[in-house]
Amino acid sequence: MKSFGILACPAWSTKAGNPYNYILYSNMEKQGYPIYEFDFAVKNSVKYALSGKYKIFHIHWPSNVIFGESEARANIRLTIFFAFINLIQFFNKKVVWTVHNLEDHEGKFPALQKKLNDFMYKKVDGFISLNQSGLELINQKTAKNRKKKTAHIHHPHYRNYYKNEISRAQAREQLGVPHDKFVFLFLGQIRAYKNVTGLVEAYKALHHPNALLLIAGNVHEDIRDELQKHLENAPDIKFVNSFVKDEDLQLYFNCADVVVTPYNKIFNSGSALLNLSFGKPTLAPDLWALKELKQLVGAQWIKTYQGQISAEVLEQGMAEIRLESETSSKKGPDISCLDPEAISRETIAFYESLLA
């Protein structure tokens, strides 16, 4: 099939915070597919409503249409968005949704969220799930959508996207971390649903003289005061309350022995892919994508636990990783099946199936 245009929401605008979309669509561009950026501004809807430049409208986080403090304004944007979808489908364009989350993590307007979800599950032509379990749930939610197609397409890795040149010793020296400490790392924006306070309490109960918990990332206002209370009287916790620049990611990853992802809810976790891309094991709850990723790359790299994060979970993870570091090679995980170019080709093939 001849190449065609793709209107992506978003395409490039999230590169700084999450380069997933940039990596996906830049690989499509290399294969000759023009990519256009869509946001929820009215002028963008008008610009692309009747445009002949694209055949696929690919959306990732539709909940972003109901942002802001005013429910009335969010409802207006939602109505315009619905009209946009109906119009482009009338002109035979296909709508694709990569379902990153089954529900919004921190939605302000639950009634509008339900309205949006009902519309999307009914109207979308093609659904992409980043894990197999999610695909089964999507099929349940779209039982009345007879025209839809679905696909399970993996999240691409981030290897070779970020700098990764610094050694473990250099990273620890720059961060002021002793060379002999076993380092648990939490990295990224600190939000309530990510359960960083639960991790802090589990670590404080560990009482291990050679361990250190390193937390780095911006703290959201919804958790700031609570986190500060949990961090009191915790000398073996190093807390860096600031946004971590792309060029500094290698410092934190190469300093760490394991990255802990103690989220209360995980449907898909690009963070685990980032950990793997830096050759670091992940310790996370046995939920959704983590189960599948564990089967894909091996239990050495994805270590899962049942229930809540605890001192016992941390202790067991530390013991396993120390033993594995002594008995296995220094070679990182095999994530070749998550190659971005291959993932983009698979996504294009799904587009083509909708247009056939």
TrEMBL record:
Annotated SUPFAM superfamilies: UDP-Glycosyltransferase/glycogen phosphorylase
Superkingdom per UniProt: Bacteria
GO molecular function terms noted in the UniProt entry: glycosyltransferase activity
Keyword tags: Transferase
Glycosyl transferase family domain segment(s): 168-265
Keyword Glycoprotein: no
InterPro entries in the record: Glyco_trans_1 (IPR001296)
This protein's name: Glycosyltransferase
